[in-house]
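Batch 3, record 17
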Amino acid sequence: MSIASTTTHSAAEARDRARRAKRKGQRDTRMSYLLLAPYLLLLMMFGVFPVAYAFGLSFFDTIEMVFWGLANYDFVFQDFRIPASVANVLSFVAIWVGLTMVGVAILSLMLDSIGRRAANTLRTIYFLPGAVTSSAIVVLWLFVLDPSVSPFQPVLHAIGWDTRADVISGIGLAGIFAIMAYFSGSGGWIVVFGGALSSLPAEVMEAARVDGANRFQLATRIKLPMIWKSLVLMGILSFAGGLQLFVEPQLMGLAGPQFAQNDWSLNQMAFQYAFRMGDFGASAALSTLLVGASIIIALVIVFATKFYKLD
Amino acid sequence: MKTQMTTRRAPLRLSLGRFITFATLGFAVCFYGIPLLWLFIAGTRSEASLLTDPPFALGTWEAFSRTWANLTSYNNFQIVTWATNSLIYAVGGVLLSLIACIPAGYALAASEFPGRKLILVLTLIAMITPSTAVVLPIFLEMNLLGLNNTYAGLILASGFFPFGVYLAYVYFSTSLPKGVMDSARVDGANRFTLFTRIALPLAKPIIALVAFFSFLAIWSNYFLAFVLLSDDQLYNLPVGLTALVSGSGALSNLPSNDVPIKKPEVVLAAILVVLPVLVIFLVAQRFVRSGMLSGAEKG
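Prediction for the assembled complex:
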């Protein structure tokens, strides 16, 4: 493109060019939105609208369809089962997040200190249970926790647990759900940290080695600090996911009615309100609180950290 | 060289360290590997063998085929219906998520326009928010729209996949050749031609990656399907699996009934849920690596 000449036409030309650029800009904007249209439609339908709708609904008596302010929230907070499920979910989250952070960090660092081929094979083995998801995790672990069929039978018997009820009361429900979730979810993270660790700068490792650091010091003093932020992100994401626990307690009843835990977690309570009591307003109020917690966590991650690329 | 020498000079301490390392890694192999291995072996064993033989006794072909026949023919071949449903939800949902994610990621990466930042932020929030958090709100909405208990309802809901948009956005912002794009624009190509002629041919890896992750999410979706579907003819496999177990009491160790679904049939049904994902994992491990890295590490 040539630089505009200094004739009398230049002003008009510049105006013309500006207008053309603006038109082109508008055309580009329209085209961008055309490309975004299917996604934006889904984002509205399954992201923005449901959250807004549940928020709105939470202020209504949904049986009579009259506005009644905070009555649904009041109802939820008065429900004697809610404090218990808050405690349940928090104890699950504490165990699960702790297990995930410690387990993933230790296994990733150890894998990084052994031969590459062996490490890759082991990583694959750790990762495969990720294929066991949702209801299949619970079904599999109900077998594994049953001393009459379990592959860990000798161990369970040695501890003195002879029935599934012994195992469940021995470990505790929060611990059992945490083990189930860790079994399926941690391998993917170990793969991620395998990639992160292998891309740490080789000079730093070499320098530390020359300075006489052994493998243990290398892992704890050099590598761990370098992956620490990502470990924290994993912890936060696990925390956010853990608050929404539903499937594992909901399916305990598969082992028989005496094992059923229908109001163990908060999401189960929201489900109970809608499906057992037909009280959509109360369900919406509790869902709003749960979504709200997730959104606050997400906002913190997006704006207070640099983990995700915004521009 | 240097390291090997140091290794030799302090054999005792380091060998203890090595011992702890290998013991821990070996323990983890047992924890992750044994339940999975057991599951696949148990599919070949009879109920009696499961209860009396050692945990890893192999089954017989005969036991396996009897279990298979019991499972597939039960309730008028219901599990076949569920498997077909799972396939319909997966194919429909994956296609929809691709149609939505790939152009959206491209538009966000390749152009500046009013509202872009807001869409990016909303996408990140939607991606970080666990999908389970919006299941009940989506149920309340679908109830309003009358889309509960339809194929379309679940497919539409599973086509919303913000993580895929983010992956496509990261991919296009790092891999589009700026020079080619600029010269094509000077030649008068509009955004749409740019997308179809230049971006799409480059997009094969990201299409595969998004399809992979969205398939995983949809195939294993239990909570949303469970809440949206009450007609058992519409169940997917994960919901069907639980219906099978609770309908037969196969896991409850109560006195037996005459439902042909026992422990081996339940194991086999669980294998049906797990196997497709397992196969895809083994075939496409590198996808997971690159995808999870860009999801969790780039910044």
